[in-house]
Design brief:
697 residues; binds ligand C2E; 5-stranded parallel β-sheet; alpha/beta; binds magnesium ion; 25 helices; 43% helix; 28 strands; 8-stranded mixed β-barrel
């Protein structure tokens, strides 16, 4: 057998005594032979590193103006894979970590150095650097790269049953160099009981050459009493017969990476605002409940679909940041209203869902809805603001026999809509008829889409009467749909049209039609003054980017005078689109078009809209014109009309149905009135015949 090649060592040491000491220690070694070159300062070291490859570099931490870490950096810059062992003084303990992080293979404290320790450190760092090189070669097979710098290293001598653990390996667990011996027990005794077997298996299989490498994740018990997630990798060295004689590898702390991964997974399945499960997670759990109910007929579940009533107003009037806080507060209340096994999720906006995973009876779901409503009874308090909230809840039950989770959710949603339609702050349990009416709604929508082309839309006109003269000052154009025998009222058309994005073409058609009619009446009719035409504009129309030029064009094409057109905006439409609304109103007024505030008094912040925008007319909602003449209502109307006058606006009251109401309004000195008392909305021919009528009380 040939004598083994000597190990070539570069010793970077500025203290000659220390050089001699090290040289002598190395000479003592019987197990290996070393060839030592001494670099007495930093520059000589750099020069030697550049000149030739070394098997190992021993570098003193203190090098005059330089330090050992610079040697490490130098090696890294040169992409040297040579293991570097740092020699530190007894007072440099805290350097250890920095050294290992900078990529030192090992560090040794000079004071208590003996021949054996030095030799062992050299041999193992060599073995490790070979292992690392091998791992690096097989890196493609691993998702993570082996950097070595932060990894603890271990070399398991299978013949002697000892394991060398690098200082970093020990430090990763919170222990010092001399506090962990070299038995395999030091390792296995610290592995989390749940993973001991997995680790043994991974090692055993690789020993038997059944796997290309050891790669196993497991927790390790640390000195501070915690467990940290580690990734242990390793390769076997084999003798001529293929028997593994030695295993060498690394241990990487995966705790943070694992936590980051957990965070990512958490984020993917949770709503970032409320930290509650999101739609994806909810659907996943729902799917599972569904499967469970297929396997076990006794297993029943329910889905609650919750939508906060008028939440948009909170958002729009108090700001989105405020709205967000309300949502967080609300979600916490929901969470306390359910049992531990139930899932409360936020689908988005103000929509929440709850999965009651295991219920006895439909009544349990209803009971939970009551608890949800009760949870909202106490107003939500945020920064001295009290917000009163209610929710509309739709319930779908597994008893309906679903196959797909999205169908359950859809039906709960349909039931929720029904609850809203029935007057909010209530719940509805989904049933077949709801499904039917949802289908009916869809048909309505499809038919409405065709109604325009088929010429089924109509405009009816309702006179607006000048109260002191008793004559018609103008008309309000109100859309109707002749659907077979049924004349569909505006509210229904508008509600569906808004959702189905049909309101814009319908609104445009109504505007053209009304303008055409206005021009015709003004041409034929000889009254004391020209007639005005009132046309309603919905929220969606306001949002059309070209709404102002569109209206101006329509006026121009019709030949009408712009000041004879009044556009009626409701407060809700304004609040929903405050910024846009201001611009549109401004644009219209510049073009000399009149603007009215419709349904005044039904919104949340009526007075603030008066301050924010300029209107020509205020239309007081009919809810203030009580038929029995409640004094309080009259007082309100009187006050509003005074205010309007001060601000240069005319006042119209809506919904005049009786002579008594008319008399009261006249006494309050209201300018205009509109209502069934004069005439309901009627077709143009009927309306035209009213023009010469004098309305007396
Ligand atoms: P609005 O602008 O407040 O219109 C007045 C509504 O009150 C009309 O309902 C009218 O028929 C009704 N009304 C009039 N006088 C009386 C009365 O004495 N008593 C009672 N109880 N009701 C009376 P209609 O036509 O069903 O319209 C409902 C709403 O639909 C309108 O409220 C308006 O906001 C909207 N709308 C109507 N036509 C259109 C349109 O072409 N485009 C848009 N965007 N919205 C429209
Ligand atoms: Mg109106
Ligand atoms: Mg109105």
């Amino acid at each position: 057998m040939n004598a083994p090649e000597p190990i070539r060592i570069l010793l970077v040491e500025d203290d000659e005594d220390d050089y001699i000491l090290t040289r002598d220690l190395l000479a003592e070694s019987r197990r290996a032979s070393f060839q030592l070159e001494w670099a007495a300062n930093y520059d000589r070291a750099v020069e030697a590193m550049a000149r030739e490859p070394w098997d190992v570099i021993l570098a003193d931490y203190r090098l005059g103006a330089h330090d050992g870490l610079e040697i490490l950096r130098e090696a890294e810059a040169r992409e040297l894979t040579t293991p570097i062992i740092l020699l530190t003084g007894a007072g440099d303990r805290d350097v250890d970590l920095a050294a290992m992080e900078a990529g030192a293979a090992d560090y040794l404290v000079k004071g208590n150095l003996d021949a054996e320790t030095l030799e062992r450190a050299i041999r193992y760092s060599l073995a490790q650097s070979r292992t690392l090189a091998a791992l690096r070669e097989s890196e493609q097979r691993y998702a993570l790269s082996v950097r070595g710098a932060n990894d603890g290293l271990w070399v398991w001598d299978l013949v002697r049953h000892t394991v060398y653990y690098s200082p970093r390996w020990k430090a990763m667990l919170g222990w010092n160099e001399d506090e962990i011996a070299d038995s395999p027990e030091e390792w296995f005794g610290r592995i989390h009981p749940g993973e001991v077997e997995v680790v043994r298996m991974a090692i055993e299989m690789h020993r038997r050459a059944e796997t290309p490498a050891i790669e196993v994740e497991h927790r390790m018990y640390c000195r501070d009493g915690t467990y940290r997630w580690m990734l242990t990798r390793g390769l076997a060295q084999r003798d001529a017969t293929g028997e593994a004689t030695r295993l060498a590898g690394s241990m990487t702390d995966m705790t943070e990476r694992k936590q980051a991964l957990e965070r990512l997974t958490h984020d993917a399945f949770h709503d970032s605002l409320t930290q509650m499960p999101n739609r994806a997670l909810f659907m996943d759990r729902l799917e599972r409940s569904l499967q469970k109910s297929h396997r076990d007929r006794e297993h029943r579940f329910a889905v609650l679909f919750i939508d906060l009533d008028r939440f948009k107003l909170v958002n729009d009037s108090l700001g989105h940041a405020f709205g967000d806080e309300v949502l967080v507060a609300v979600s916490e209340r929901f969470a306390t209203a359910v049992r531990a096994g139930d899932t409360v999720a936020r689908l988005g906006g103000d929509e929440f869902t709850i999965l009651l995973d295991s219920i006895e009876h439909a009544a349990d779901a209803v009971r939970t809805s009551h608890r949800i409503q009760e949870a909202l009874v106490v107003p939500v308090r945020i920064r001295d603001q009290e917000i009163f909230l209610t929710a509309s809840i739709g319930i779908a039950l597994s008893a309906s026999g679903y196959d797909r989770p999205q169908d359950v959710l859809r039906d709960a949603d349909i039931a929720m809509y029904r609850a809203k339609g029935q007057g909010r702050a209530r719940h509805e349990v989904f049933d077949r008829t709801m499904h039917d009416s949802a289908v009916e709604l869809l048909r309505f929508e499809t038919d409405l889409r065709r109604a325009m082309d088929r010429g089924e839309l109509r405009v009816h006109y309702q006179p607006i009467v000048s109260l002191d003269q008793g004559i018609i000052a103008g008309f309000e154009a109100l859309v109707r749909w002749q659907r077979g025998d049924v004349l569909v009222p505006a509210a229904e058309i508008v509600r569906v049209a808004e959702d189905a994005a049909l309101i814009v073409p319908i609104g445009q058609w109504v505007l053209n039609e009304a303008l055409r009619q206005l021009v015709e009446w003004n041409r034929l009719h000889q009254g004391p003054g020209p007639l005005e035409m009132h046309v309603n504009l919905s929220a969606r129309q306001l949002l059309q980017p070209d709404i102002v030029p569109m209206i101006i064009n329509a006026i121009r094409r019709s030949g009408a005078a712009p000041q004879h057109l009044h556009l009626e905006l409701t407060e809700t439409a304004l609040i929903e689109n405050a910024d846009v609304a201001a611009k549109v109103i401004e644009g219209l007024r510049k073009a000399d078009v009149r603007v009215s505030l419709d349904d005044f008094g039904t919104g949340y912040s009526s007075l603030s809209s008066l301050r924010q925008y300029r209107f020509d007319t205020l239309k007081i909602d009919r809810s203030f014109i009580s038929p029995d003449g409640a004094r309080r209502d009259d007082e309100i109307v009187r006050t509003i009309s005074k205010l309007a006058r001060l601000m240069g606006m005319a006042v119209t009251v809506e919904g005049l149905e009786t002579a008594g109401q008319l008399a009261r309004m006249r006494s309050i000195a209201i300018d205009f009135g509109q209502g069934y008392y004069f005439s309901p909305p009627v077709p143009a021919t009927v309306a035209g015949a009213l023009l010469n009528h004098h309305f007396r009380d």
